[in-house]
Design brief:
The structure is a single chain. The chain is α/β, with parallel strands linked by helices and 514 residues long. It folds into 3 domains: 132 residues, Rossmann fold (3-Layer(aba) Sandwich); 224 residues, ANL, N-terminal domain (Rossmann fold), CATH 3.40.50.12780; 97 residues, ANL, C-terminal domain (GMP Synthetase, Chain A, domain 3), CATH 3.30.300.30. Helix content is 30%, strand content 26%. It is built from 16 helices and 27 strands. About 1% of the residues have low confidence.
Length: 514
């Protein structure tokens, strides 16, 4: 019988291979039996606290064993898992909790006291599970320790059963185009996307995934679900700032898969010993990239530096798609280097005009996706939902075209287009040219308000080492771009502001220019 619920992946793998290592983190090695038992006991605790199907449970934890147990435990109880960034600011966290009205919160070390101290706990919250807390006292009380919560009896499998159409998780977008929106994903959404990803990556129980992306980010969540689904092993490393330690652990653990966003790979190429380790990564079967456009220069360099047996999957997706929409087969990548590929199994991606009509090959329009993985909508925001979901599917906001072979290309975003002196310009084209100079780690091109031009182009660039001058880079642009696409200014900076997922935070970059 086909599995219909997200937590069924864990239960099935625990039944099939109970003693297999599911998670590795900071020296801790947890088997599928142990992980499943912890999740079931947490689910039992949640039901004892009166949690009902559809109740939101906020998870404010860093990547780790307790995060995984919490995520699957919440789902086993029939509740909705809402992972949030542990570094969310007080004001934003208060707004999100007010918006979510959660029944409970599972919080990082020290976080339970902070939430109460800042009066961020809304009246809907009936309990806090705090990792480092053990509070003696009589019922009723608000704060429980993790170990206390796991003293509950295991929830019998199927006890918290809900429909596959029921809400499983609310994942917040990074807010790159405004306030973060809560993307509602059903069990069906996540299960269908998980199956598709395991199919095209050909994942098996022998796969060992290195995870450096946060689990509250949709791609991180996807890495956890896909490898738990096949009975593989997830190696969690929260120290990507120390890239050498990540590469070393990949070699030690025999990691078969690594995943990242463009900045992850830029730092691996230029700020890590990846090139010198290529002979020590015999097990590295594949690398995957998503999370936005990766410059051609980085892709070409990766193909040279990765071990010859390692396949590179370039992928495209969205939080609203439960993660994945398209991928480029590694064997086609050299000839389709600028492409985001073709739709994954079970998904359709079309190029539509403003009237919703499909456009012919080569014509530029909006990429619109449909399939069982597309979100239910945005939490408490029917207007925003109606703007992106209609009878044609999910309107990604990305502009692009399809070539004669059926491969899709993204040329930019509708909301990133800049009007400069009457010209509509997509910054991605200029960023691509600047990166091709080979002298930059990363770059972002922004539009600053200008009374004459409407917007003035400014580039923030992180140099690799030789510290190219802004004049050298401007001369490089002059030779390759029309005059109206040349930045008025190039500012060299030590680093670009980023979201916790590793994506560039354009709003904070703009603030830097102010």
């Amino acid at each position: 019988m086909e599995l219909q619920m997200v937590h069924s992946f864990l239960e099935s793998s625990a039944a099939a291979r109970p003693d297999k290592v599911a998670l590795v983190h900071d020296g801790e090695r947890v088997s599928y039996r142990q992980l499943n038992r912890s999740a079931s006991r947490l689910a039992g605790f949640l039901l004892q606290r009166g949690v009902l199907p559809g109740d939101r449970i906020v998870i404010l934890l860093s990547n780790g064993v307790k995060y995984a147990a919490s995520y699957y435990g919440v789902l086993k109880a029939g509740a909705v898992a809402v992972p949030l960034n542990v570094e969310t600011g007080q004001e934003t966290l208060g707004r999100l909790l007010d918006e979510l009205q959660p029944a409970g919160i599972i919080v990082e070390q020290g976080g339970g006291h902070l939430l109460q101290q800042f009066h961020l706990v809304p009246p809907s919250v009936r309990f806090l599970v705090a990792i480092d807390t053990s509070v003696p006292g009589d019922e009723p009380r608000l704060v429980w320790g993790w170990d206390e919560a796991l003293m509950a009896e295991e929830l019998p499998e199927g006890a918290g059963k809900v429909s596959p159409e029921a809400l499983a998780s609310i994942i917040y977008t990074s807010g790159s185009t405004g306030q973060p929106k809560g993307v509602m994903l059903s069990h069906r959404n996540i299960v269908s996307n998980t199956r598709s990803i395991t199919q095209y990556l050909r994942l098996t129980e022998n796969d060992i995934q290195m995870v450096v992306l946060p689990f509250f980010y949709v791609m991180g969540k996807s890495l956890l679900n896909t490898h738990i689904a096949v009975g593989g092993t997830v190696v969690i490393n929260n120290n990507f700032a120390y890239t050498a330690s990540v590469i070393r652990q990949m070699a030690e653990e025999g990691v078969t898969g690594f995943s990242g966003v463009p900045s992850t790979y830029a730092y691996l190429l230029h700020r890590s010993p990846l090139a010198s380790f290529r002979d020590r990564l015999p097990s590295l079967r594949y690398c995957t990239q998503a999370g936005g456009h990766m410059p051609r220069e980085i892709k070409e360099r990766l193909l040279q530096v990765l071990p010859p047996h390692t396949k590179l999957f370039i992928m495209y997706g969205a939080t609203e798609a439960a993660a994945r929409l398209t991928y480029v087969e590694p064997e086609r990548l050299p000839e389709k280097l600028g492409s985001i590929g073709r739709a994954i199994p079970g998904v359709t991606v079309r190029v539509l005009d403003a009237q919703g009509e499909e456009l012919p090959d080569g014509a530029c329009g909006e990429l619109v996706a449909s399939g069982p993985n597309i979100m239910v909508g945005y939490w408490n925001d029917p207007e925003a939902t109606a703007r992106v979901l209609d009878g044609n599917g999910y309107h990604t906001g990305d502009l692009g075209y399809r070539d004669a072979d059926g491969y899709l290309y993204v040329t930019g975003r509708k909301d990133h287009l800049l009007k400069v002196g009457g010209h509509r310009i997509d910054p991605q084209e200029i960023e691509e040219v600047l990166m091709s100079s080979g002298t930059l780690l990363e770059v972002v091109v922004l539009g600053l308000d200008d009374p004459l031009l409407g917007k003035k182009l400014v580039a923030l660039a992180v140099p690799l080492g030789g510290n190219p001058s802004d004049r050298t880079l401007l001369s490089f642009c002059h030779a390759r771009l029309p005059r109206h696409k040349i930045p008025g200014e190039i500012r060299l900076v030590a680093a670009l502001p980023k979201y916790p997922s590793g994506k560039i935070d354009r709003a904070s970059c703009l603030a830097l220019c102010g």
